[in-house]
Specification:
By secondary structure, the chain is mainly beta. It is built from no helices and eleven strands. It has strands at 3-7, 10-12, 18-25, 33-39, 46-51, 57-59, 67-72, 77-82, 91-98, 110-111, 115-119. Strands 2, 4, 5, 6, 9, 10 and 11 form a seven-stranded mixed sheet that branches. Strands 1-3-8-7 form a four-stranded antiparallel sheet, with no helix packed on it. The protein is globular. The chain starts with a strand and ends with a strand.
Length: 120
């Protein structure tokens, strides 16, 4: 079975950093499109950062220059380094995977349970 397990969320002050991790079981992050998505209360789901099968990263305009997505193949783990956090970054962050993808707004075939990020 495929399982995606996020961690690293929490409460942080405005301007601070936070790093999210997504450990993946049952598929290889090196072969799949991987991405971070978020949903805030009352708002639509938003693609934050994705990395495709070829290693190309794409970011939402709202996080460019502040967030960095990366994969560690040896640990089969996806990361999201978030710097200069703002209140509007507050949301539940989800890790998702799919075989093929384009851009930053797609829906994964597999999804984690989410981790809450609160910036105040």
């Amino acid at each position: 079975d495929v399982q995606l397990v996020e961690s690293g969320g929490g409460s942080v002050q405005t301007g601070g950093p936070l790093r999210l991790a997504c450990v993946v079981y049952g598929l290889s992050v090196s072969s799949y499109c991987m991405g971070w998505f978020r949903q805030a209360p009352g708002k639509e789901r938003e693609g934050v950062a994705t990395v495709d099968n070829g290693g190309r990263s794409t970011y939402a305009d709202s996080v460019k220059g502040r967030f960095t997505i990366s994969k560690e193949n040896a640990k089969n783990t996806l990361y999201l380094q978030m710097n200069e956090l703002k209140a509007e970054d507050t949301a539940i962050y989800y890790c998702e995977a799919r075989s093929f993808c384009y851009g930053v707004n797609w829906y994964g075939n597999y999804k984690g349970q989410g981790t809450q990020v609160t910036v105040s």
